[in-house]
Specification:
The structure holds 2 protein chains of 2 kinds.
Chain A (H helix, E strand, L loop, with lengths): L13 H40 L2 E3 L5 E6 L2 H5 L3 H33 L4 H12 L6 H12 L4 H9 L9 H25 L3 H9 L4 H12 L1 H16 L3 H6 L7 H9 L5 H25 L5
Antiparallel strand pairs in A: 1-2
Helix pairs in contact in A: 1-13, 3-7, 3-10, 7-10, 8-9, 12-13
Chain B lengths: L4 E10 L3 E11 L4 E5 L6 H9 L6 E6 L2 E2 L10 E4 L11 H11 L4 H14 L15 H13 L5 E5 L7 H18 L2 E6 L2 H7 L2 E6 L2 E6 L1 H6 L4 H6 L4 E7 L4 E4 L4 E3 L9 E6 L5 E4 L9 E13 L3 E8 L4 E7 L12 E7 L3 E4 L2
Helix pairs in contact in B: 2-3, 2-4, 3-4
Classes of the chains: A mainly alpha, B alpha+beta.
Chain lengths: 298, 357
């Protein structure tokens, strides 16, 4: 028995096929043209501008001078301060991703395993509702909740479990987890919902207990969701700016506000550009490696 | 002798108004190839899933070699299943798939390796150990699924329409192979199918189900030759139905008044339906004198003729007005009849059976 059985029996005309393929390719190109154009103008070009700026000289007043080139800013990346900020940011992003995964997985699993489609959709809408209002507005809402007279602070004081959290690290985590949890839940939900439950039954039939079946079958098969969710949470939390700034009071320097500082009060556009390009490149390379290695199913 | 599987008054309800399996009792003998046959939705798969432990009965008892396990989880039962869609783990190689059950039961490494190798060889998949399921054809996946279940040496192997996804040729080849494997390992097979031909050719015994009820249990011959009711007669093979009334024992009066011999234990006067298989009918010239006296005779007119190659189909209108199908094997001496021919048809006294339901 070979795979031959599954093949179409008739040979297609190769020349005709090639022609059709070419026509198909052109049609695809024209359909995608507006998107390409938009991305080139508003994404690729600005990106190139940033790359160019990262090699620019800086005048004494802080004005970037195009036309005089230097590697100074790229060398500056090696400074201990940059390293400290980078490590702190990566650690924060990593913790946030881990917490989101730990909370998000059981939740996504629970939604995906509801029998009625109406219940599932309703729960998904609940996950999406926060997106109906602006992230900045929602972060300010958290500020109110966590401030001295905020509801959460009052509850904490009444129970004696916590005090005012605003401008502390827990507040930053609370905000980050709150902000990025949906990005974890949605891909996880998609992966778990697509799971072939026959496979779990097969595992149970082959002497695996409920937990073993989960670990050996459900978990590995939801890996695409775990990877996608982790990427979607990790990347934005690495550059998080609003949350640490508004809820953490910008007490600790993270990559996000470090870059902003360069562009604003620091008046050092070239260095800000260098930092931005570096983060982008690192994340891009990391993502590509991830996809190449195991995320092919993504 | 203890039955391999003893099912006692098992009922399965889903919610309040769906009864998937309705008070089924059944004994399956050790070493037999038993088929559960019925149309989709008849409850055969639910029955199988209850034996596997993937579903628990609402009422009743299920025993395997005398051990009660109706409510035991699937991983604690001495049975394994070959799933309809094969359910091979896509993230594991053939080898890993087959080894799964042994690893879960913590069988030693050396023994696992050896048993896995032997199981893979038994299903002719040697050399494919390192492939992933998506690199295999349907037939190959089927073999791996079989090896994955058999490697555990279950006391009972459950098969849920395992050949349903294969094309006809492959299916026929696999039928023979499955039967051989079963004879070789000597394990009790419970085989769920909606394909009556598959059930007839493969099984030692068949249980026919409809609407959650087990209608009849018997050997393929019993099921085909002596169906208990119209549903079984019609579901297994092709048949003709002719209405009539039971007169005395083994006699039935047809609507036109002709009395024929048939197997019947219906009380005199009850309405019955005769079931008569198309291949049991012979066609003779009207007034032929050489017809065996053991055979019933009815006058008929040929209304249609179909050429099937290995056989010929004739549609006949009998004197009572009913249309019958007759299938004649295409042997060289076969006499052909034109549409409109006035003929006499005959069938043996034991070829027709009177059904009361």
């Amino acid at each position: 028995m070979t795979m031959l059985d599954d093949r179409p029996s008739e040979e297609a005309n190769p020349e005709l096929e090639k022609k059709a393929e070419r026509a198909e390719g052109w049609r695809g190109f024209f359909i995608a043209l507006p998107t390409y154009a938009y991305l080139v103008v508003f994404f690729v070009l600005p990106l190139l501008i940033i790359v160019v700026f990262s090699f620019a000289e800086r005048s004494r007043t802080g004005k970037p001078v195009l036309g005089e080139w230097t590697l100074e800013w790229w060398i500056k990346l090696g400074e201990p301060l940059v390293r400290t900020v980078a490590i702190r940011s990566v650690w924060l992003a990593f913790l946030n991703t881990a917490i989101c995964l730990l909370i998000g997985y059981p939740f996504a699993y629970w939604i995906a395993t509801r029998k009625s489609a109406i219940t599932r959709n309703f729960l998904l809408v609940l996950v999406l509702i926060p997106f109906w209002s602006n992230f900045l507005v929602r972060t300010y809402a958290w500020r109110t909740l966590l401030d001295s007279n905020g509801l959460i602070t009052k509850v904490g004081e009444w129970t004696g479990l916590w005090g005012k959290m605003l401008f502390t690290e827990p507040a930053v985590f609370l905000g980050l987890v709150y902000g990025y949890l949906p990005f974890m839940v949605l891909p996880l939900y998609a992966a778990i919902e697509h799971l072939d439950w026959n496979l779990v039954e097969a595992a149970r039939d082959l002497y695996a207990g409920a937990w073993k079946a989960f670990r050996k079958v459900t978990l590995p098969l939801s890996k695409p969701g775990i990877i996608a969710g982790s990427i979607l949470v990790f990347i934005p939390s690495l550059g998080a700016y609003v949350t640490p700034d508004l809820l953490g009071g910008a007490k600790t320097t993270l990559l996000g506000n470090y870059i902003v500082t360069q562009f604003k009060s620091g008046r050092n556009w070239p260095f800000g550009a260098t930092l931005s390009v570096t983060i982008l490149a690192v994340m891009m390379v990391a993502t590509i490696i991830y996809f190449r290695k195991g995320g092919k199913t993504l | 002798m203890t039955a391999a599987v003893g099912i006692r008054e098992v009922t399965k309800r889903f919610g309040t108004d769906v009864t998937a399996v309705d008070n089924v009792s059944l004994d399956i003998v050790d070493g037999e190839f038993f088929s559960l046959l019925g149309p989709s939705g008849c409850g055969k798969t639910t029955m199988l899933r209850m034996i596997a432990g993937l579903e628990f009965p609402t009422e009743g008892s299920i025993q395997i070699f005398g051990e009660e396990l109706a409510l035991r989880p699937p991983n604690k039962r001495p049975v394994n299943t070959v799933f309809q869609s094969y359910a091979l783990f896509p993230h594991m190689t053939v080898e890993k798939n087959v080894a799964f059950g042994l690893e879960m039961r913590k069988v030693g490494k050396a023994e696992t390796t050896e048993r896995v190798a032997r199981a893979i060889e038994a299903v002719h998949m040697k050399g494919m150990e390192k492939r992933k399921p998506n690199q295999l054809s349907g037939g190959q996946q089927q073999r791996v699924a079989l090896a994955r279940a058999l490697v555990n040496r279950p006391k009972v192997l459950l098969l849920d329409e395992p050949l349903g996804a294969l094309d006809l040729k492959l299916r026929q080849a696999m039928q023979i192979e499955l039967k051989d494997i079963q004879a070789e390992v000597g394990i009790t097979f419970i085989y769920v199918t909606h394909d009556q031909e598959e059930a007839l050719t493969m099984s030692n015994r068949i249980g026919v189900m409809q609407d959650g009820e087990l209608l009849q249990v018997g050997t393929p011959e019993e099921i085909y030759e002596r169906p208990v009711n119209r549903f079984v007669a019609e579901f297994i093979g092709e048949t003709n139905f002719v209405d009539g009334t039971a007169t005395e024992e083994d006699r039935v009066r047809l609507t036109d008044g002709t009395v024929v011999h048939a197997i019947s234990d219906a009380p005199t006067g009850t309405d019955v339906t005769l079931t008569l298989r198309p291949e049991k009918i012979q066609i003779h010239t009207r007034g032929a004198t050489d017809i065996n006296p053991e055979r019933n005779q009815i006058s008929a007119t040929i209304t249609r003729q179909l050429y099937y190659g290995e056989s010929l189909y004739y549609e006949l209108k009998i004197s009572g007005g009913e249309l019958l199908d007759a299938r004649l094997e295409n042997i060289p001496s076969l006499r052909r009849w034109d549409v409109g021919s006035e003929v006499t048809i005959s069938f043996h006294r034991e070829a027709a059976e009177a059904l009361t339901s």
